[in-house]
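Here is one chain, start to finish.
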Amino acid sequence: MTIATVVAAGIARVTIDRPPLNLLDAPTILDLTRALAALKDRRDLHFVVLEGKGGRAFIGGADLNTLRGLRPATARAFITRLHRLCLAIRESRLPVVAAIDGHCLGAGLEVAAACDLRVATTRSLFSMPEVRVGIPSVIEAALLPRLIGWGRAAELVYLGTTIDAQTALTWGLVNRVAGTLDEALAPVSEALSAGGKRALRLQKALLRRWERLPTPLAVRAGIGALAEAYREDEPARMMQAWFDRKRRKN
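Its structure:
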């Protein structure tokens, strides 16, 4: 089994275990897509953590043994499957956090870019080296200019530049960096776990709408999202809990 899912305390951890570098071939892509799709509507979860096992790589890229045997039709089919994996992340109702330890290259960086948040260890490395093996960076590489700007995205995809975790943090490619994955993940996990489960789902849906809507329509969508939050009792419960905590402190 290359994909394992463990659920505890409102968090699902999905782990890719394909040593040594967790490379993506067609079966792994399909298994990972299915694992993420199975979680997308879970109302008992706050969020999902996606990670690679072994410490050498989050995802070291697409498997070159697969890529070198492709032809136009099979290349289209393979990259479409990989895009569907990224869509499973983006279309999940739950926030998905990429927990990056080691190499995050090519297809791995596209998967990470599709996630809602990214944390990394100090030893992590990031690169889009596709042009060096004769193919362009595609599909969710299209998200990189929005994350880090056009100039930096161009440096990654034209030059195949490798950047370290601190540079990735400075560029805005990752949200947190620490010595270990647990240290990098802890503050994000704590903050997400403190949020309302339904509020997080509404916020993710709204963020996705913000990507494609002009500002006036994005504002209108936010008004609708706030009204939708009050269809259930989560705001009342969580606000009352806030007042109760404040009263106890005083």
